[in-house]
Amino acid sequence: MAMKLIAPMAFLAMQLIIMAAAEDQSAQIMLDSVVEKYLRSNRSLRKVEHSRHDAINIFNVEKYGAVGDGKHDCTEAFSTAWQAACKKPSAMLLVPGNKKFVVNNLFFNGPCQPHFTFKVDGIIAAYQNPASWKNNRIWLQFAKLTGFTLMGKGVIDGQGKQWWAGQCKWVNGREICNDRDRPTAIKFDFSTGLIIQGLRLMNSPEFHLVFGNCEGVKIIGISITAPRDSPNTDGIDIFASKNFHLQKNTIGTGDDCVAIGTGSSNIVIEDLICGPGHGISIGSLGRENSRAEVSYVHVNGAKFIDTQNGLRIKTWQGGSGMASHIIYENVEMINSENPILINQFYCTSASACQNQRSAVQIQDVTYKNIRGTSATAAAIQLKCSDSMPCKDIKLSDISLKLTSGKIASCLNDNANGYFSGHVIPACKNLSPSAKRKESKSHKHPKTVMVENMGAYDKGNRTRILLGSRPPNCTNKCHGCSPCKAKLVIVHRIMPQEYYPQRWMCSCHGKIYHP
Q1: 3 state DSSP class of 63
Q2: How far apart are CA 160 and CA 217, in angstroms?
Q3: Which of 17-21, 95-99, 193-197, 383-387 has the lowest average pLDDT?
Q4: What is the C-alpha separation between 473 and 388, in angstroms, rounded?
Q5: Which residues contact 455 (CB under 8 A, 6 or more apart)?
Q6: What residues form DSSP beta bridges with 151?
Q7: 3-state SS assignment for residue 319
Q8: In the predicted model, what is the mean pLDDT of residues 481-506?
Q9: Sign of the CA dihedral 82, 216, 361, 368?
Q10: What are the phi and psi torsion angles at 109 (to 5°)?
Q11: Residue 316 near residue 142, CB atoms below 8 Å
Q12: How many C-beta atoms surround the C-beta of residue 195 within 10 A?
């Protein structure tokens, strides 16, 4: 009540002082003082009202039954709190700090009201025993969200240690790991305008943070950690998505720090610290004779420490499609194996993969200002297909030596391109000075994806198809209309792995065989 009276009382006092000011100039000092108090009281009043508004839209999981003792199952409480917060604009779902909440598999489904924030200040932990999980697919799944933020100073712990046990074995001198029966920790599907910021993700049973069919995503200042020998624990995986900006993240896991899969474009990675792990990978592409497309990837500023790979592009024999318009610059290698690697003979089977003529085309790839030390004799490896040689590979200002201080080597099989500045180690079959051949497309790194049916370069509007010819979907959707062709990403065992792509017929979100 006192706060409500401040404004009118202060206003009356101000009027009286103004009248007196005509008679006494000294009253001006009092006038200034009262005006300042009036404005300050109004600001305080607005802050009170604003804080009350914010409090209404904070949904603390504890108020919905969650117990942060690290023992009680909080799955139902988290689900109920999500459903309530999802309905309110500018809502915040809060996981309070200094507490540990154990949850099982959860599906956080949208659409939700605008400006929804999920703030994690405490610890969200999975069950340690795999037998206690509801399923082995995805632990925390988010879908159909727009303008959503996942942030905080807390931890999301996948408790993957027991999942990793016995998953890898050595066959014919190669380590083969089972990647089919362990869940991803966090996955976003069919979402736009996302921000992931400040969190620490750790110990996922398999991939930590995966995006499929997402657009306009910022990932800022997060850390992802798992032991060096934890199998397939990728940090960030991006599939069939576009317009991503990863900035100032620190990732050290048992597999790729960042992996960019088929159907992805306009991916920017800045100031990444990676290690341990398998580096930044584009691919693998073309698995099971599928068509793949990745374009406009820009890595600017990265440090690789004791990684198994650095900057890697990996494709399977027998695939088709293209990986193009890729720039790596301002990168430091510290005792990294395979600092620069293009491998068009990628194979993870126990026996050697069969040689095939078809391959994913790799072209327009730039490596600029890459420096540091290599743990392998060949610091640069360009292992390209003889039937589909790599095109327009550009090396500029490269300085890589062995960790021992000795001279490193470059292996170039079927890569055509150019070099400029000092390139150490030197690579054969590359021509000097490529300035006249520099791709103009780097100046306009924008690709437009249209209804998942392909990509267009903005410069000439040329369609870059992601699959074969679209089918005729007339009368193929069981009476549903409109029935349109749509490129979907499927896998015969695990549909959500986003590897091969197929043209299907689609109507109102449902998929039909043509």
Answers
A1: helix
A2: 26
A3: 17-21
A4: 33
A5: 265, 293, 295, 447, 448, 449, 463, 464, 466
A6: 119, 197
A7: coil
A8: 59
A9: negative
A10: -100, 145
A11: no
A12: 17
Concatenated DSSP letters for 180-226? Answer: SSS-EEEEEES-EEEEEES-EEE--SS-SEEEES-EEEEEES-EEE-
Cβ atoms of residues 278 and 252 within 8 Å: no
> What gap in Å lies between CA 310 and CA 343, rounded to an integer?
12
- Find out whether the peptide bond into 227 is cis, omega within 30 degrees of 0: no
Given a contact cutoff of 8 angstroms between Cβ atoms, the answer to whether 148 and 110 are in contact is yes
List the domain boundaries for the chain. Answer: 2-54, 57-255, 468-512
Rg (CA), the chain: 28
**How far is 76 from 64, CA to CA, in rounded Å?**
9
Q: Which of 126, 114, 287 is nearest to 192 (CA)?
A: 114
Give strand ranges (E) for 69-203: 69-73, 92-95, 100-102, 106-109, 116-120, 123-125, 138-143, 148-151, 155-157, 168-171, 174-177, 184-189, 192-197, 200-202
478 is catalytic: no
Query: Is residue 506 packed enough to be buried (19+ CB in 10 Å), middle (13-18) or exposed (0-12)?
Result: buried
What residues form DSSP beta bridges with 331? 302, 370
Rounded Cα–Cα distance for residues 404 and 510 (Å): 58
pLDDT digits (tens, 9 = 90+) for 126-170: 999 999 999 989 999 999 999 999 999 999 999 999 999 888 777
Average pLDDT of 227-245? 97
Question: Hey, what are 32's tokens?
Answer: 């200034």
10 Å CB burial of residue 244 (0-12, 13-18, 19+) is buried
Contact call for residues 153 and 121 (beta carbons, < 8 A): yes
Token pair 């996981």 in the structure block, residue: 95
The Cα–Cα gap between 81 and 52 comes to 20
pLDDT in tens, 41-57: 444 433 433 443 444 59
- Rounded distance between C-alpha atoms, residue 137 and residue 183, angstroms: 4
Catalytic pick among 208, 278, 298, 325? 278
Going by C-beta distance under 8 Å and a sequence separation of 6 or more, which residues neighbour residue 355? 317
CATH number of 57-255: 2.160.20.10
Tell me, what amino acid is at 494? M
More confident residue, 463 or 266: 266
